[in-house]
Amino acid sequence: MASNPTATQLTAAPAKRTGLVRCIAIVLLALIVLAGIVVLIIWLVVKPKRPVYTIEDGSVHDFNVNNNHLNSTFGFVIRAHNPNGRASIYYDSIEVSVAYDDQNVAFSTLVPFHQPTRNVTRLDAKILAQNVAISSSIAKDLKLEKTSGEIELAVRVKAKIRFRVGAWKSNHRTLRVVCDPVMLHFSSSKSFQRTYCDIDL
């Protein structure tokens, strides 16, 4: 005649399962912590530096303000410098906008690219303002700017970037660049003055 299992025997199997789950959880947590430490060590050793941005050239064409709407083509040569000796930079998306008196009046996107270490890349940005609605006060100010022969703008760049060191790539980071003020001349006879930009990363 088979004997009935005791209370100790009945609780042994659940206890073993609980112990196994706990062991797996500890191993997974240890692996996550180890991976985090490795990434932190790589980051501290490499110490990626911020890119350096300047506006090297700028122009304005077909500028017209009519019925509180702006049409124009703005052209900029944006100089991006990667000062890092070990980390290259992936630019996965790049947005460029032009603002006047804190109002965005033109917007464009640039082609994504990979920037090697200690590299200077010049981005040719053509930014179109097509029938952009503006307030009557801004329309008045823009007409006065054209009469004066020059216009003061702000150029902003927003990019999703990743740093790469060897086979390791960082997570996406948002790079924000603000170049202000940028002075554009309506007459091509006047030379453009380089503008240095502020970086937020």
TrEMBL record:
Coiled coil: none annotated. The chain crosses the membrane at residues 24-46. It comes from Citrus sinensis (Sweet orange). GO terms for cellular component: membrane. Residues 78-175 form the Late embryogenesis abundant protein LEA-2 subgroup domain. The keyword Membrane applies. It is a single-pass membrane protein. Keywords: Membrane, Transmembrane, Transmembrane helix. The lineage of its organism: Eukaryota, Viridiplantae, Streptophyta, Embryophyta, Tracheophyta. This is Late embryogenesis abundant protein LEA-2 subgroup domain-containing protein. GO terms for biological process: defense response to other organism. It is found in: Membrane.
